[in-house]
Write a structure and sequence with these properties.
- β5 and β6 form a beta hairpin.
- The strands form 2 sheets. Strands 1, 2, 3, 4, 7, 8, 9, 10 and 11 form a 9-stranded mixed sheet that branches. A two-stranded antiparallel ribbon has the order 5-6.
- It contains 14 helices and 11 strands.
- Among the domains are: about 200 residues, Beta Polymerase, domain 2 (2-Layer Sandwich), CATH 3.30.460; about 120 residues, Poly(a)-polymerase, middle domain, CATH 1.10.1410.40.
- The protein is about 50% helix and about 10% strand.
- By secondary structure, the chain is an alpha+beta fold.
Length: about 475
C-alpha cells in the first residue's frame, strides 16, 4: 500500500503492521488466507483515513464503529482467515487506533514545518500520474516490444547456423532423408519479449508413410495426450534396414532419445564451431547442461573478444510433421520414456491467436507479450511459462468479445483475476487438449508465491509494471 508523505504518525504504525502481516500471511494462511487478509488491510486503512478526517473524539468513535463493521464482514469468512491472524489484526489495530486518537489531540504542525518535512523526504515515483491504460502502453513499448534491429540481428545469426548445419548434414550424411530446415519459435512469430535471445532450428525428418505411423498419446500405454509414439509398420514384410530411421528403433518404435543422442554426437560435438564462429565474427559453443541441443552464440568486438552483448541461443529441434500434427524430439519433456515424442501445441495456439486478432483487430497478442514480460521480470512470477499465458487468453477470448486496444487495461486486470483462480484450483487446462494441466509442473511453493503476488496486484496492478 502506498502512503503519501503527508501521513500522520499513527499511519506509520499501520504501515508497519500491514507490512508485517502481508509478508508473513502467505506462510501461515496460504494464498486464500493472504487474499482476504489483504482485503482486511484495506478496511483498516479506511478506518485510519476516516479517523484522520474527524474533527473531534465523538466523530472519531462513530467512524471507527463504521469501519469495524466493514472489517467484521471480511472476518466473517471462517474458511479463509484463521482466528490466530484475526487476533493479531485486532490487537495491532486497536493499539494503532489509540495512538491515532492521541495524535488528534496534539496540536498540528504549521504548514511551513509540514512543507519542510516533505522537502526533506525523498520523492517517490508518482505512478498515479498515469492511468493503467497509459502504464500498460508504456510498458509494452519499453519492455515487451523488441527493437526491430535486435530481432533482425538474432534472426540473421540463427539463419547462419541453419545454413551451416544443413550443409554439414548434407555433406556428411547425404542419405539422411530430411525436409527443408527453417527457423521457428517466438522469435519468428514476433512473440518474444525483453530481448531477442533464443530461436529454434527446425529439422523435419522425412518418414515413409507405408513404414511408419504416428500414434496419439491416448492410444499408447502412456495414456498421456502429449506423449505420442511413432510405430514401425509391416516389419514382417519390410524388415529392419528398409528405412533410414530403423537404426533408432527401440521396442518397435522410433526413439526420440536415441535420435537426440545421435544429433548430439554428430552435430554438436563434431562440427568445427570455432572455425564457423570466426567466419561469423561470433563465438559459438554448445550450451552445457540439459538434454536439449542448444548453441550459444556470443558476438565478438573488434579485438576478437566477447562484446558483452546478449548472446543468442539456438536450439536444434528434430521433429515430425503429419498434417497439422507436429511431434518434437524433446527428451526433457518426455522423460523417462525413451521412445515418446512430444506433441507441440505451439503452432495451434499461435495460429489461433493470430486469427482472432486479425478478425477484430484485437490486442490479444499485445496482452500476451505484456504478461510474458511481467512474468520474466518479476522474480515470484518467473516460473510461469508462456504456454499457460497463451491458453489463459484463449479461454478468456471464448467468453469476452471486446479485445479492442482501448480495453487493454480491462483485459489485463481480468487476466490477473483469472490466473489467480486457476492457481487456486491448481489447474489450467489446455485450450486444445483439455486433459492437459499446464500448471502441473509448478511446485506448491511456486504456486503460493505467484498467487500472493497476483493478489497484491488485484488492487494495485501497477506494481507488476515497475
Amino acid at each position: 500500500m502506498n502512503f503519501q508523505n503527508t501521513r500522520r504518525r499513527g499511519e506509520d504504525g499501520v504501515a508497519m503492521v500491514i507490512n508485517f502481516l502481508l509478508s508473513n500471511a502467505r506462510l501461515v494462511l496460504g494464498v486464500g488466507g493472504a487474499a482476504i487478509l489483504g482485503i482486511a488491510t484495506l478496511a483498516v486503512k479506511r478506518l485510519i483515513e476516516r479517523a484522520g478526517r474527524a474533527a473531534d473524539d465523538e466523530k472519531v468513535e462513530q467512524k471507527i464503529t463504521e469501519s469495524w463493521e466493514e472489517l467484521s464482514l471480511v472476518s466473517a469468512s471462517p474458511t479463509l482467515i484463521q482466528r490466530e491472524i484475526e487476533g493479531v489484526v485486532i490487537n495491532h489495530v486497536a493499539k494503532t487506533t489509540k495512538q491515532q486518537k492521541a495524535d488528534l489531540c496534539q496540536p498540528q504542525k504549521s504548514s511551513l514545518e509540514t512543507e519542510s518535512n516533505c522537502d526533506s523526504k525523498p520523492k517517490k515515483l508518482q505512478l498515479c500520474a498515469l492511468t493503467l491504460q497509459d502504464r500498460l502502453q508504456q510498458f509494452y513499448c519499453t519492455r515487451a516490444a523488441l527493437d526491430p534491429q535486435e530481432v533482425q540481428r538474432a534472426q540473421a545469426l540463427a539463419l547462419d547456423i541453419c545454413t551451416e548445419v544443413h550443409g554439414f548434414l548434407h555433406s556428411r550424411h547425404p542419405d539422411m532423408p530430411l525436409e527443408e530446415m527453417s527457423i521457428g519459435g517466438s522469435l519468428l512469430d514476433n512473440l518474444q519479449v525483453i530481448c531477442a535471445d533464443h530461436a529454434c532450428l527446425l529439422v523435419p525428418l522425412q518418414l515413409e508413410a507405408s513404414l511408419w505411423r504416428l500414434v496419439p498419446g491416448e492410444e499408447t500405454l502412456l495414456t498421456h495426450p502429449l506423449h505420442w509414439m511413432v510405430r514401425r509398420l509391416n516389419i514382417e514384410y519390410f524388415p529392419r534396414g528398409r528405412s533410414y530411421w530403423d537404426r533408432y528403433l527401440v521396442g518397435g518404435y522410433l526413439s526420440s532419445e536415441a535420435l537426440v543422442n545421435w544429433f548430439n554426437k554428430a552435430v554438436m560435438e563434431t562440427v568445427n564451431w570455432p572455425t564457423i564462429g570466426s567466419s561469423m565474427d561470433c563465438l559459438i559453443r554448445p550450451a552445457l547442461g540439459g538434454s536439449d541441443l542448444r548453441l550459444e552464440i556470443s558476438p565478438l568486438d573488434e579485438n576478437g573478444s566477447e562484446s558483452g552483448d546478449q548472446p543468442v541461443f539456438v536450439t536444434i529441434l528434430p521433429l515430425l510433421r503429419e498434417g497439422d500434427v507436429v511431434l518434437t524430439a524433446q527428451p526433457e519433456l518426455t522423460s523417462p520414456w525413451v521412445n515418446a515424442w512430444h506433441l507441440s501445441l505451439y503452432p495451434w495456439e499461435t495460429r489461433r491467436l493470430v486469427e482472432l486478432d486479425a478478425a477484430d483487430n484485437g490486442c490479444r497478442i499485445k496482452t500476451l507479450k505484456i504478461l510474458k514480460a511481467v512474468c520474466r521480470l518479476n522474480h515470484a512470477l518467473r516460473p510461469m511459462e508462456a504456454a499457460p499465458l497463451v491458453n489463459l487468453i484463449l479461454h478468456l477470448s471464448d467468453r469476452e468479445s471486446d479485445w479492442s486496444d482501448s480495453s487493454l487495461d480491462v483485459r489485463f486486470q481480468q487476466c490477473i483475476t483469472e490466473l489467480i483462480g486457476y492457481l487456486e484450483q491448481g489447474a489450467l487446462h489446455s485450450h486444445f487438449k483439455p486433459a492437459v494441466n499446464l500448471l502441473n509442473s509448478l511446485s506448491e511453493d511456486q504456486v503460493d508465491q505467484m498467487g500472493f503476488m497476483l493478489y497484491c496486484a488485484v488492487s494495485e496492478p501497477e506494481i507488476l509494471l515497475v
